[in-house]
Amino acid sequence: MASEAPTNCSIVVQSETSAVVDVCNQILSRLEEHNFDKDDIFAVHLTFEEAFLNAVRHGNKMDPSKKVKIDYTVDDDKVEISITDEGNGFVPDAVADPRFGPGLYQPGGRGLLLMNSYMDTVRYNDQGNSVYMVRYKEKPHLTEN
Amino acid sequence: MMFRAKIRPQFMVILWGFVMAAIKPKINVDYMGSATVVSFTDEKILEEKDISELQESIMSLIESDSSKIRLILDFGNVRFLSSAVLGMLIRTSKRVHERDGQLKLCRINPKIYEIFKITRLTKIFDIYSDVESAAEDMA
Questions:
Q1: Exposed, middle or buried: residue B66 (CB in 10 Å: 0-12, 13-18, 19+)?
Q2: How far apart are CA A82 and CA A12, in angstroms?
Q3: Nearest one of B99, B90, B104, B103 to B55, comparing CA atoms
Q4: Where are chain B's structural domains?
Q5: B20 in contact with chain A, both atoms CB, cutoff 8 A
Q6: Considering only the top CATH level, what class is A7-136?
Q7: How far apart are CA A66 and CA A69, in angstroms?
């Protein structure tokens, strides 16, 4: 199968929850062009939504005058996404695990868990206002004859 | 002089279609025995505004039921949801149990179920494969 040339893109959008739709659709279209399977597309869709909404709600504190910057690269092996907000940042390790104790019954706090579960790499910059995520394409299941 | 406009029935049907398309209810409500079955109509539940409206609709149903509500949420049409929907479910569960009611979820597809497993919400929600099983298990 012929390879698609890698896609690199950098976009700045207004810090509004509705702004996620167009950018997300762009990324998912690139994934389809590069023959990512449905599991990969679902995973990237979910984590992009969570990361973007975190940037808008927690990073930019729902301030529509602020911006969110998205950089992404899609090639035949992986998708890389960076999302940067204009907030002061946070400490990812300080976020309580929502799977145990009182956190299990809280309405929020699951976005980071889902991002870490569905992406192969999730890293924050030192300030904590930019996240870098990678998902490698699922390898086809090979069986010996 | 009186003037009467005669509106053709065909026009009324078309107008009603446009109105209903614009409203597009987010949930369908049905009843199975003593259980109230709420089915989500959208394939994707992502937008904050939509989730808030769903929450309001479901809370209205809970509040309007004078007895201990037996509520089943049917996810049969749902292909994608964000973690904010999980928050909505937790708030719904709290309210149902405050009123001594019961809440069960059903017809969750494998990809969505995976989200429930990762977040360990399978520990706090009763999840069934179909509406009938959920209704049968209502005390």
A1: exposed
A2: 12
A3: B90
A4: 25-136
A5: no
A6: alpha beta
A7: 10
- Contacting residues of A for B82, CB less than 8 Å apart: 46, 49-50, 53
Q: Give B35's strand partners.
A: B32
For Cα atoms A96, B95, B101, give the angle at the middle one, nearest 5 degrees: 125
Is the Cβ pair A49, B82 closer than 8 Å? yes
> Given CA atoms A33, A41, A77, A30 in this order, what sign does their dihedral have?
positive
Band the pLDDT of A38: cuts 50, 70, 90: very high
Residues in chain A: 145
A111 and chain B in contact, CB less than 8 A:
yes
Q: Which CATH architecture has domain B25-136?
A: 2-Layer Sandwich (3.30)
**Three-state SS string across chain B, please?**
CCCCCCCCHHHHHHHHHHHHHHHCCCEEEEEECCEEEEEECCCEECCHHHHHHHHHHHHHHHHHCCCCCEEEEECCCCCEECHHHHHHHHHHHHHHHHCCCEEEEECCCHHHHHHHHHCCHHHCCEEECCHHHHHHCCC
Complex prediction ipTM? 0.90
**Hey, is the C-beta of A102 within 8 angstroms of any chain B C-beta?**
no
Contact across the interface for B120 and A105, Cβ inside 8 Å:
no
Q: Which two tokens stand for residue A94?
A: 């300080």
pLDDT tens by residue, B32-66: 989 999 999 999 998 888 999 999 999 999 998 87
pLDDT band at B1 (very low <50, low <70, confident <90, very high): very low
